[in-house]
Amino acid sequence: MTATNKTALVTGASRGIGAAIAERLAADGFTVIINYSGNARDAEAMASKIEKAGGRATTAQADVTDPSAVARMFDAAEAAFGGVDVLVNNAGVMHPQPLAETDDKSFDSHLAVNLKGTFNTLREATKRVREGGRIINMSSSQAVMLFPGYGVYAATKAAVEAMTHVLSKELRGRNITVNAVAPGPIATKLFFDGKSQQVIDNFKKLSPLERLGQPEDVANTVAFLAGPDGGWINGQVLRANGGII
Known about the structure:
Elements (H helix, E strand, L loop, with lengths): L6 E4 L5 H12 L3 E6 L3 H13 L3 E6 L5 H15 L2 E6 L14 H25 E10 L3 H4 L5 H20 L6 E5 L7 H4 L4 H10 L8 H12 L10 E2 L7
Parallel strand pairs: 1-2, 1-4, 2-3, 4-5, 5-6, 6-7
Helix pairs in contact: 1-2, 1-9, 3-4, 4-6
């Protein structure tokens, strides 16, 4: 199949990195399903933007922490488009705190969205993604940078990387690749929230390229893995971080 008759499901795609991924995949010819949990306005605005640019997009409300909601989302994709060819697991949360100051609510939120949410979509994808498809998980370079304050977040992303490696082997014989993209600091609202200008400037200096990554940098990496040139990449973690690590 060509991209023009393939469908890509992007979780957490109403804004930030997810929105950039949805926009890029639509430009590459995919019909894009923009998943969101609660921000319907932003999701609809992104779908409208894609449609106005000549692409094809629809929205799908589902909380990825709810297995039943995830199953219904895949059901709807199959009913509307015949199936899913690309899954991008982008939905995630990040609440930087020292371990000693992390309460149970924050810990449980990280595990529910970043880990269980990814597991829920992966479990459906193993049964639903069509032959020749691509599964792309979002990790983080924090899984190996291990900065203070990111212990719980990094732990969930390390677990996502482990599932990526294992699932790529479990799907043997189906011509489905499973990879992860691990961005470094990316200039999104999620990154900027709560950070002083000095902290932001320090993050900029981490990369030899001396800038923050942009959502489009990550989207370009995902597009490579989802496209024809990425077909021989499997079971890998691509660290899209400008050379930080």
